[in-house]
């Protein structure tokens, strides 16, 4: 896919024409299996619009479509909750969940709301456990920021244990998954460790005293860079690399060589997958690396959307 790919206007036009048609049928249809299918069509259309707008990188309507996806899922769960979701439903719901959680990681929204009643299926989401943990950490951050009192305190020690369990489970899946290429299993193991260390960094930045956690954070940063050096071919898991690269990149201020490593890897991902939100991530990191601020102040920079 070209680096600066712009989706044909016909694709956007087709999707925009399909959306009101599906919505009209959905509103007119009685609560039934057919209604569930219409809701699925609407959700798929909205998620396609979201991704096409990320590719064009010219509008901010992708936020509106993520909110629309949440509303559709909520309606579907309430209106047709008796119908058991199939694989397609679970895939679309996880696509929404994954996108919403990672948007929350890179932008600070005090009204952070993500539907978390999402089934994590190993065949659909091998890193689903990590995503759910990061959602819990981000939600705890929003609660602390709002000043709301809660009896459900998220302790970093508990989260670290969950992250370790998620890593072990992903490594077990690695042994039974079927890969098309011999090297892919080896690369997946390195990628799993990158998710593990990125999760540790994020959790300690949000939930712990950054000064007391500095040695652990630096060790995890260096571990991510080491595992990255073993990925000779980024094509196997390019889409999955963005988040650990982003988290590692936020710990590379003041280290030009490490910054170059992260930038080269992100540019490699962009060459393989297209821009999507990757250029936005890289632009944010470049800006952050130039800031004169204390370690751990990444949160203050997330008060606004990442530059696109």
UniProtKB/TrEMBL annotation:
It comes from the Eukaryota. It holds the Pfam family Fungal_trans_2. One of its GO terms (cellular component) is nucleus. Keywords: Nucleus. It comes from Aspergillus pseudotamarii. PANTHER family: TRANSCRIPTIONAL ACTIVATOR PROTEIN UGA3 (PTHR37534), ZN(II)2CYS6 TRANSCRIPTION FACTOR (EUROFUNG) (PTHR37534:SF46). This is Fungal-specific transcription factor domain-containing protein. It is found in: Nucleus. The keyword Hydrolase does not apply.
């Amino acid at each position: 896919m070209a680096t600066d790919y712009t989706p044909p206007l016909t694709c956007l036009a087709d999707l925009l024409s399909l959306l009101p048609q599906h919505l009209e049928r959905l509103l007119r249809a009685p609560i039934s299996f057919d209604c569930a299918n219409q809701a699925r069509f609407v959700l798929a259309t909205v998620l396609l619009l979201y991704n096409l707008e990320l590719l064009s990188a010219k509008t901010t309507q992708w936020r509106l479509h993520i909110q629309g996806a949440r509303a559709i899922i909520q309606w579907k769960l309430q209106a047709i909750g008796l119908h058991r979701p199939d694989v397609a439903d679970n895939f679309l719901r996880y696509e929404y969940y994954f996108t919403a959680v990672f948007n929350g990681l890179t932008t600070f929204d005090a009204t952070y709301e993500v539907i978390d009643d999402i089934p994590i299926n190993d065949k659909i989401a091998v890193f689903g456990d990590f995503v759910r943990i990061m959602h819990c950490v981000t939600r705890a951050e929003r609660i602390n920021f709002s000043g709301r009192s809660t009896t459900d305190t998220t302790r970093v020690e508990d989260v670290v244990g969950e992250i370790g369990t998620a890593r072990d489970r992903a490594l077990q899946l690695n042994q039974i998954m079927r890969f098309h290429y011999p090297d892919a299993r080896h690369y997946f193991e390195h990628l799993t460790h990158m998710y593990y260390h990125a999760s540790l960094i994020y959790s300690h930045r949000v939930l712990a005293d950054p000064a007391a956690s500095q040695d652990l954070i630096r060790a995890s940063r260096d571990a991510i860079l080491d595992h990255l050096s073993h990925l000779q071919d980024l094509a196997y898991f390019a889409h999955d690399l963005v988040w650990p690269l982003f988290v590692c990149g936020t710990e590379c201020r003041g280290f030009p060589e490490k910054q170059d490593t992260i930038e080269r890897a992100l540019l490699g991902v962009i060459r393989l997958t297209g821009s999507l939100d990757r250029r936005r991530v890289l632009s944010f990191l470049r800006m952050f690396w130039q800031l004169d601020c204390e370690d751990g102040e990444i949160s203050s920079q997330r008060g606004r959307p990442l530059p696109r």
